[in-house]
Amino acid sequence: MTDGDYSSDDNDEPSHENEPGNDPPTQASSEAFCTKYNEDESPSSAVISAVSAVKGVEPIELECLSDCIDPEALDALMGGPTVIEDGGTIRIEFQYAGYRVSVLNNGSLTILDETE
Q: How far is CA 46 from the centre of its chain?
């Protein structure tokens, strides 16, 4: 076999495809929905909008965000410009409506499906 040649005809190594614990991850479990929010939208509103879009439901159909996290505290921590002397990032993670939500102070928002 030459470098870069990965054809299936070469069987130098045994296959472990059907052994327990070697199941490939499903596509949904390895995907994350990532978006950005800006200063015109509060982080709490961005979370609700993103989760409703990922879940395919109207925002009103979701559980109250305040059942999972204090929306006012989230907005206060992540809503305005935050100066961190060492240039670090603030990240808040929580579970909401069956998803793992990650909010960063740079405007990044990531939604991961917890059911997969």
A: 13
pLDDT-based confidence at 93, cuts 50/70/90? very high
Sign, Cα dihedral of 37, 39, 66, 63: negative
HEC-encoded secondary structure of 24-83: CCCHHHHCCEEEECCCCCCHHHHHHHHHHHHHCCCHHHCCCHHHCCCHHHHHHHHCCCCC
Cα first-last separation, the chain: 38
Supply the pLDDT for residue 116: 64
Cα–Cα distance, 114 to 101 (Å, whole number): 10
Per-residue pLDDT tens for 38-81? 888 999 999 999 999 999 999 999 999 999 999 999 999 897 65
Residue 88, both tokens: 């670090």
Q: Whole-prediction pTM value?
A: 0.69
Taking the C-alpha atoms of residue 60 and residue 87, their distance in angstroms, rounded to an integer, is 37
Of 25, 18, 67, which Cα lies nearest the Cα of 47?
Answer: 67
